[in-house]
Amino acid sequence: MVETSTLRVAVVGAGPAGTYAARHLLGAGDGTYADGRVALLTDRAIEVDMFERLPTPYGLIRGGVAPDHPEKKLMGQLFESLTRRPEFRYFGNVEVGRDVSAGELSDWYDAVIYAVGASDDPVLDIPGADLTGCVSARQFVGWYNGHPDHADLAVDLSAERAIVIGNGNVALDVARILAHDPEILRRTDIADHALKALERSRIREVVVVGRRSHLHAAFGCAELEELGQLEGIGIAVDAAELALAGSPPGLARRKHDALVSYASNPSAGGGRRIALRFLTTPIAIEGSEKVQGLRWARTGLVDTASGTRNLDLAGVSDVIPAGLVIRSIGYRGSPVPGLPFDEVRGVLAHLDGRIRGCPGSYATGWIKRGPTGVIGTNKKCARDTVRALLDDAAAGLLPTQRSLDRATLDARVRERASAVVDLHGWRAIDLDERRAGHLENRPRRKHTRIPDLVSAARAGHPVGPQRYEIIVIGSGLGGLVSAACLAASGKSVLVLEQHEILGGCSQVFRRKGKWEFDCGVHYVGGCVPGSDSLIPTVLRGLGVEDRIEWSRLDDDGMDTVVLPEHTFRVPTNWDGFADNLAQTFPADATGLRNCVAELRLIGEGADRINDVPHSVRVVLPLARRPRELAVIVRALEQPIGRMFDRHRLSPKARTALLSLIHLHNTPPSRTPALLVAALLRHYFKAGAYFPTQGGQVLAANLAEVILSHGGTIRTKARVRSIDIQAGRVTGVTLTDGEAIGTDIVISNADAHRTFLDLVGPEHLRRRTVDRIRAFRRPHSIFSTYIAADIDIAATRPATNYILHGRYDVQTTYDMLDHGQWDPRGWLAISSPTLKTQGRKHFGIPGHSSIEAFTAVPAEYEFWGGGDPMAGPSYKGSPTYIQRKAEIEASVMDRVLDTLPELTGHIVWQESATPLSHERFTLSRMPYGPENAKDQIGPGRRLSVRTEIDGLFLAGVSTVYLYGIAFTMRGGVGTASHVLGRDLLKAFWAGEVISDRASLPEHGPGWDPFDVCRGHVRKGARGEQQFAATITAG
Fold first, then answer.
1. Phi and psi dihedrals of 850, rounded to 5?
2. Where is the FAD/NAD(P)-binding domain (predicted)?
3. Looking at the structure, do residues 31 and 160 belong to the same domain, yes or no?
4. Could you read off the pLDDT of 811-836 as tens digits, one per residue?
5. In the prediction, which pLDDT does 921 show?
6. Which one of 261, 455, 477, 930 is most buried, by most CB atoms within 10 A?
């Protein structure tokens, strides 16, 4: 029998571990994807109450992440996404053991998960460790981050030298904060008392000492390299200590090289310096009543030819004078009253997350596994614990008494805790701190004492929202086209983009003032001025067609396909394509020509269908062409392999027809013939093109239409929720708490994020939620960007290179489906330099930009389990480092084999993984839903109109499909639904809806990149409160 009653769970701790546990319980939409689907742990109704002993949530995100690393605080947004779920409640300033007992929670709830972290310190067992002036890194970090437990910590900064014992990332954080210029820290959320103390600090040197060699140091490469980028701070390393450790293994080479560079340049920096010492074991802290120095001995672990051994150089010891010693030797859990505790490991006593002797009680995070891993490691840890809980619930192993109802639970908690801070109170604290920070151009000014936090919670009042007629979430081309159409039609439009640059897949990025790289626009079809192709038609209707210049790829070969034993070019016409294939595979010539003819029939027939892909009326124009209609329907319903079977193609010839699979990244077994035909028709109708000024020029011109017609654009404005009341849109709320009112929202985010994160399953029909969760996503891509100091267009045509290391393309996707990467899978090489034949709008002549892409698994497990939403710490995972290095090396080998003239001329390269994509775009899968036969067509892809009144969709998740042309056309389709008129029909008829006279002039120095950035705004909430403060004062 399936249990259907609501399961009520208490989560104790509001840090990363508790947040992940709550999200797994409530089925958040950002879980690990197995074969492209959201991996949900249960369908059972669950309610979660989160308890936190402090008034504020976030745990170490608020109290542990260094203030000069704001990017690592993104994890807090995951907590915020919970706060709009009606099944979630927050009880801050409630401590287990003080206000409520563990036994009471077990009596009140069906299950309790303890995620209380590690709030104690391991013992440094050397003489003098208890002297005044010796503090733990946990205390010091809490002090500068404004943790109420440590706001009154006595920190003596009067001496000229401080010592940090330990060589992990926390040790480097501590050293960096001590050495930083206070003017830099003044722009962060560092606690006021710490900022004042550091402004008076006399410390000029911070010595970081580690017992082990630099090859075994726990700090990450990125954190180590960051030290060398600190302005005005010298980094000192003793080359002799590095030499004692021997040769570095592969994964330690980058760390070793960074330290060698520091050792060779000891005078770098200004008046302050950080010295890194290795093989330096503390044996005593010197001083009578307060710290005066650290005595050390030269001992530690080093690598030798025969393995790792202990180095013990008798008599090699010394004293480093100092007035402050900070112990950064880890964290340790503290007992929870009423629960069994493992004193040896410093964790709750448990088995696979189940707390021993306490049925229904569980542990996750550091209190479960000890202080190991990065923030994102808690995601899998919490998932394992939640699975154990749900398995026990399904097996009837939870305590049999019924949990209390929600109202009774609330009353019980408030009876025992006199100053509960709920979500409204947290919002008030957050708003008050941000307001105070706004006045000083800082992210926030933290309250650092419990009474002040409670007072702020009780005194806060929300600010009323602004209103727009239409809000567009996301600035991908679908969203920008919709916004441009609506703004040009006289609507009040606001575009909200979480990134700092507009454009989505059309974005570019630049490096070193010489090179520009395109993220997603590589080549498009049919951009002949004045033609009826989609892109020129949309741009013409918006009045900007003549403001964009296009470079045409080589008509004899827009792509050059390199197979293990064959090479052929893909011309931009059907007959030439068939001829090249027949010449390359003479044994399959007849079958290939017949196959290309059938694809042509399908592709050209698709041009005649109605432009209403959300309806079966799409095929009405073919009612009088029954044969053509039957062929098109068959092409949609059957995978491309069926066509190959009918024409009896050999495996090698099949690969030739699948050579452009990089354009959709869908396994052949799931690729409909219609998709292949439509893609070829897109390029063969009127040639292949690339925007001469890069993909950013598309977003820039659309942005100018929006702005010149009274629209508003805001970047770095991430939306937390689409607000719904009684089944209709009322506005949006940003992650900083700002509320903006509207009756219409167009979401350019992908379907999973739109419905499962921004709207929430509670506002949707169950079948809609199931449908969204069932959408398969395609595999992701690994991108490598290469800069060269030669012009490769001098000797090569305007072509892309498509490499296939095997003839059986399906094998590549079978491997990907099983979480494996295929080093022989497809690799696409695209160069803006080649496509524009060396014409540069940015950088200097004689240099080349090259981009390479290949398919890789998107699953977190493949990349080492990190979570980009927790900040960039995932990059420090050994698995991540190894995977990235391995794939990048393979990509570079294949690029150099194809473009050998680059040998010796590559001056810069950088790679992006699926986790990189997610960190910047909130998605690891850039293609949208998989373009498979069961996910394309009326009723299979999402309509732009949703079941929520006032909510519309734009972008690759909709029936208009993916790709630059179809996404832009889809943007017009969405705007048409909002306005109630067919804009594309009007555009084809020659109507221009924008006021061309209002568009800004494009002079010689016009730069599309500049147009797409600089739209950051503090937000109306902060501005209103700032004005109110001025008025009141």
1. -130, 140
2. 8-215
3. no
4. 999 999 999 999 999 999 999 999 99
5. 74
6. 477
Tell me the HSE value of 885 on the side-chain side, using a 13 A CA sphere: 13
Query: How many domains does the chain contain in total?
Result: 3
Q: Nearest to residue 522, comparing CAs of 676, 690, 696, 688? A: 690
Q: What is the CATH number of the domain that holds 757?
A: 3.50.50.60
715 closest CA partner among 417, 1031, 374, 1009: 1009
Integer Cα distance of 143 and 153 in angstroms: 6
| CA-wise closest residue to 115 among 47, 21, 9 | 21
169 and 305: one domain? yes
CA distance 861 to 850: 29
Backbone angles phi, psi at 932, to 5 degrees: -100, 165
Same domain, 41 and 102: yes
Do the beta carbons of residue 452 and residue 460 sit within 8 Å? no
Least reliable range by pLDDT among 437-451, 513-527, 604-618, 698-712: 604-618
Mean pLDDT score, 642-646: 92
281: enclosing H helix or E strand = strand 281-286
The dihedral through the CA atoms of 440, 446, 449, 455 has a sign that is positive
DSSP codes, 657-714: HTTTGGGT---GGG-BHHHHHHHHHHHHTT-EEEETT-THHHHHHHHHHHHHTT-EEE
Return left, alpha or beta for 128; rule: phi > 0 is left, psi -120 to 50 is alpha, else beta.
left
- Residue of 163, 196, 198 whose CA lies nearest to 291: 163
State the residue range of the domain holding 954: 468-550+691-776+927-1011
Distance (Å, whole) CA 186 – CA 191: 10
pLDDT of residue 87 exceeding 70:
yes
- Report the CATH number at residue 71: 3.40.50.720
Q: What is the DSSP string of 776-833?
A: ----EEEEEEEEESS-GGGTS-S-EEEE-S-S-HHHHHHHHHTT---TTS-EEEE-HH
Is 165 a domain residue? yes
Distance CA 542, CA 380 (A): 48
Question: In sequence order, which residues have a C-beta less than 8 Å from that of residue 444 and are 6 or more positions away?
Answer: 189, 430, 433, 434, 436, 437
How far is the C-alpha of 656 from the C-alpha of 187, rounded, in Å? 56
**306 and 344 co-located in one domain:** no
Question: Looking at the domain assignment, is residue 163 inside a domain?
Answer: yes
Residues 87 and 220 in one domain: no
b/e sequence 775-802, b meaning 16+ C-beta within 10 Å: bbbbbbbbbbbbbbebbbbeebbbbbbb
**Residue 103 and residue 243 in one domain:** no
Residues 408 and 477 in one domain: no
296 and 361: one domain? no
In a 3-state reduction of DSSP, which class is residue 583? helix
| Alpha carbons 735 and 978: distance in angstroms, whole number | 27
Q: For the chain, what is the radius of gyration of the CA atoms?
A: 30
Verdict on whether the full-model pTM lies above 0.70: no
Is residue 818 assigned to a domain? no
Question: Under 8 Å CB-to-CB from 188, ≥6 apart: which residues?
Answer: 67, 68, 70, 442, 443
Local structure of residue 861 (DSSP, 8 states)? G
Cα–Cα dist 955/942, whole Å: 10
